[in-house]
From TrEMBL:
Pfam families, A to Z: CH, EF-hand_7, EFhand_Ca_insen, Spectrin
Name recorded for this polypeptide: Actinin, alpha 4
Family: Belongs to the alpha-actinin family.
CDD domains reported for this sequence: CH_ACTN_rpt1 (cd21214), CH_ACTN_rpt2 (cd21216), EFh (cd00051), SPEC (cd00176)
Organism: Cyprinus carpio
Every EF-hand domain range: 726-761, 762-797
Origin: domain of life: Eukaryota
Molecular function, one GO term: calcium ion binding
Keyword Metal-binding: yes
Length: 867
């Protein structure tokens, strides 16, 4: 026997000389034509092949010459193969009838361009195509090397490899052995007949028992495998299309779920935070309010910044999702009610409004409590002074000393009472101040107002009582005045001058000890100026003191000169020269103390000027920097030079440079905290507040992130729609030309002019349709992203619901419905279950139990019906 595999790689030699492989092939063909066994094998193969088709019409043949002689079954075979109706056959038994039927069959074959003789280029091409298909399908299998349609199939492995490639569950290929060709061939033929509806056309022995199996028989047999699996190839293609569409849908649904969760979490955080910021329940003490301020700082620095990023990322995710939906020809995503980007922006706006109001309220409350503490201390000081002054006054006014007094004593008592009235009138202002302070504490909701009110009421009632008692005593003294002589005018002069001076000194001591609170250098300088003015009056006051002391000295001199024995102190006043000297010394002590306190406060305010300037210098640098960066981003987003990738790289580098500026913001937050801790509420060195800088910084980060997202979406659009860089540049140039305000957004009139410039013929209805696409929210503004989405949508093709329906129809075997079993067989498990869970039951007239409606499912994927 000739070794075919050796002959395939080298020349064959005969005893008479050199012979090529092709010559050997031709010799084999001539030998086979003369071999009866070969003819028998040909008949067997062709008969089996014919029966594989006739079986579909419910018949078969046994003998080719006899059963095709009358032409009836030959015409039936051609109808089954072609799927067309042939002319009506003649049913007569005469030879002419049979010949006419055969001629009709031959005419039909000829009408299809089939040549019944020779082997032309068409047949050669078909053979080469079938051979190439076999080689591709069997390439991964060991011990299989398909080079022809005879020797390559002799060991049976190629037949088994074809079946295993398409239906791996039918063949355990690893158990097959190359040295057992009969078992291999029988296994392949039996599996093909049982599971693939391919009749057994050859016996294993017919192939193994011959040196070179018949090529046409093998080709006929292999062609049956090709036709059996060609439907699987179509199903595979259809399944791939469906898998691709479903993968897009599943990814979009995942993005929608992520958006819904992120939006829900962010809205819930805003919902929880706003009541806290809107809570205006004041605390009673400065310490408690300072803790509230510290909690607010934690919120601004720790809790809010991640939420700012989440909000920005949410908008980016929403825009990316909408772009992907547009690119895949899917309907736009509509979030759940209350979770639109506009809803989140509205909630965020409300949050920031509450936040701004909260900070202002905190600072106002701290100022109020500071003012309250100052007023309360001032009330206590004045009340204590007044209560000390009134101590014993009621007993003095109710005594009956005038009943037994002499005339001189009565006159003295009357003068003394007049001096007391003058003193009482001088104290009226203090009582009014005490009442005014108490009223202001009430109006400012001082927490200890009840005790203040009680003390004030007691002082006022006592004051009214003193007024009544004073009036009663005066009336009593005046009734006896006619019986008394006047008292020495000198005493009276002393008393009259000593009382105002004594009141002046008491007022001076009170003022010198009065607490003060200032917030800037100007206020403390005003207090220093007032104090300097007070000190300038001291020389005149000292002259008045010396004059009063001179009166007392004159009294002593006169009494001594006249030998008069004075009965104690001046009867007209309790103010002694010693008490005046003591209070004057006290004033002299308090003046430098007041000087020192004012200078210390001046130094403190001057030291506060440093953090003011420090904050202002940094703010005056950061504020313009943010404004410049915002302007640069706007310019970059409009100009967009270079490729999209270049622009994206440039923007990300630009974003990184912005992020690297963050330490300056953090440093300014520290400066701001120092100012607040020092209770500095104004800053004349800058117009920027920390709130301005925070909002500007957040807007800057959001703007650069949105700009980067726009470029990413443009890249998605370009790659998905096949838009060239030149087209994108042309779109950008046209858009910039009509973007008169250079904002990246244009109104409807400018957009209409832009469309006309791109060659669109617009009527009112067509323009309204386009505006509905590019501006679905009727905002009256069109962005560049919306413009390129529209242009790419109008100029490129996308997969459609009809294409998906056609793919499902292939998987369903041309039925109007599909079953769960078919979906699980043709699609990956997760996508099969995805379809089964969402497909509605099929209710057509040809429905069977478990039938699913793939048509409504496909249209729902593209928003043409409800899923």
């Amino acid at each position: 026997m000739v070794d075919y595999h050796a002959a395939n790689n080298q020349s064959l030699y005969s005893a008479g000389g050199q012979q090529t492989y092709m010559e050997q092939e031709n010799d084999w063909d001539r030998d086979l034509l003369l071999d009866p066994a070969w003819e028998k094998q040909q008949r067997k193969t062709f008969t089996a092949w014919c029966n594989s088709h006739l079986r579909k019409a419910g018949t078969q043949i046994e003998n080719i010459e006899e059963d095709f002689r009358d032409g009836l079954k030959l015409m039936l075979l051609l109808e089954v193969i072609s799927g067309e109706r042939l002319p009506k056959p003649e049913r007569g038994k005469m030879r002419v009838h049979k010949i006419n039927n055969v001629n009709k069959a031959l005419d039909f074959i000829a009408s299809k361009g089939v040549k019944l003789v020779s082997i032309g280029a068409e047949e050669t091409s078909a053979k080469e195509g079938l051979l190439l298909w076999c080689q591709r399908k069997t390439a991964p299998y060991k011990n299989v090397n398909v080079q022809n349609f005879h020797i390559s199939w002799k060991d049976g492995l190629a037949f088994n490899a074809l079946i295993h490639r398409h239906r791996p569950e039918l063949i355990d290929y690893d158990k097959l052995r190359k040295d057992d060709p009969v078992t291999n061939l029988n296994n392949a033929f039996e599996v093909a007949e049982r599971y693939l509806d391919i009749p057994k056309m050859l016996d294993a022995e017919d192939i193994v028992g011959t040196l070179r199996p018949d090529e046409k028989a093998i080709m006929t047999y292999v062609s049956c495998f090709y036709h059996a699996f060609s439907g699987a190839q179509k199903a595979e293609t259809a399944a791939n299309r469906i898998c691709k569409v479903l993968a897009v849908n599943q990814e979009n649904e995942h993005l929608m779920e992520d958006y819904e969760k992120l939006a829900s979490d962010l809205l819930e955080w805003i919902r929880r935070t706003i009541p806290w910021l809107e809570n205006r329940a004041p605390e009673k003490t400065m310490t408690e309010m300072q803790q509230k301020l510290e909690d607010f700082r934690d919120y601004r620095r720790v809790h809010k910044p991640p939420k700012v990023q989440e909000k920005c990322q949410l908008e980016i995710n929403f825009n990316t999702l909408q772009t992907k939906l547009r690119l895949s020809n899917r309907p736009a995503f509509m979030p759940s009610e209350g979770r639109m980007v506009s809803d989140i922006n509205g909630a965020w706006h409300k949050l920031e409004g509450a936040e701004k109001g909260y900070e202002e309220w905190l600072l106002n409350e701290i100022r109020r409590l500071e003012r309250l503490d100052h007023l309360a201390e001032k009330f206590r000081q004045k009340a204590a002074i007044h209560e000390s002054w009134t101590d014993g006054k009621e007993a003095m006014l109710t005594q009956k000393d005038y009943e037994t007094a002499s005339l001189s004593e009565i006159k003295a008592l009357l003068k003394k009472h007049e001096a007391f009235e003058s003193d009482l009138a001088a104290h009226q202002d203090r009582v009014e101040q005490i009442a005014a302070i108490a009223q202001e504490l009430n109006e400012l909701d001082y927490y200890d107002s009840p005790s203040v009110n009680a003390r004030c009421q007691k002082i006022c009632e006592q004051w009214d009582a003193l007024g009544s008692l004073t009036q009663n005593r005066r009336e009593s003294l005046e009734r006896t005045e006619k019986q008394l002589e006047s008292i020495d005018e000198l005493y009276l002069e002393y008393a009259k001058r000593a009382a105002p001076f004594n009141n002046w000194m008491e007022g001076a001591m009170e003022d010198l000890q009065d607490m003060f609170i200032v917030h800037n250098i100007e206020e403390i300088q005003g207090l220093i100026t007032a104090h300097d003015q007070f000190k300038s009056t001291l020389p005149e006051a000292n002259k008045e003191r010396e004059a009063i002391q001179a009166i007392q000295a004159e009294v002593q001199k006169i009494a001594q000169y006249n030998g008069i024995k004075l009965a104690g102190n001046n009867p007209y006043t309790t103010i002694t020269p010693q008490s005046i000297d003591k209070k004057w010394e006290k004033v002299q002590q308090l003046v430098p103390q007041r000087d020192q306190a004012l200078q210390e406060e001046l130094a403190r305010q001057q030291s506060n000027d440093h953090p003011r300037r420090q904050f202002a210098n940094q703010a005056n640098m950061i504020g313009p920097w943010i404004q410049n960066k915002m302007a640069e981003i706007g310019r970059i987003s409009i100009e967009m030079n270079g490729t999209l990738e270049d622009q994206l790289t440039h923007l990300r580098q630009y974003e990184q440079s912005i992020i690297e500026y963050k330490p300056n913001i953090d440093q300014q937050e520290g400066n701001h905290q120092l100012i607040q801790e020092a209770l500095i509420f104004d800053n004349k060195y800058t117009a920027y507040t920390m709130e301005h800088l925070r909002v500007g910084w957040e807007q800057l980060l959001t703007t650069i992130a949105r700009t980067i997202n726009e470029i990413e979406n443009q890249i998605l659009t370009r790659d998905a729609k096949g838009i060239s860089q030149e087209q994108l540049h042309e779109y950008r140039t046209s858009f910039n030309h009509f973007d008169k305000k250079r904002t990246g957004i244009m109104d409807s009139d400018d957009f209409q002019a832009l469309l006309i410039s791109t060659g669109n013929s617009l009527g009112d209805a067509e323009f309204a349709r386009i505006m509905g696409i590019v501006d679905p929210n009727n905002s009256g503004a069109v962005t560049f992203q919306a413009f390129i989405d529209f242009m790419s949508r109008e100029t490129t093709d996308t997969d459609t619901a009809d294409q998906v329906i056609a793919s499902f129809k292939i998987l369903a075997g041309d039925k109007n419905y599909i079953t769960a079993e078919e979906l699980r067989r043709e699609l990956p498990p997760d996508q099969a279950e995805y379809c089964i869970a969402r497909m509605a039951p099929y209710t057509g007239p040809d429905a069977v139990p478990g039938a699913l409606d793939y048509m409504s499912f496909s249209t729902a994927l593209y928003g043409e019906s409800d899923l």
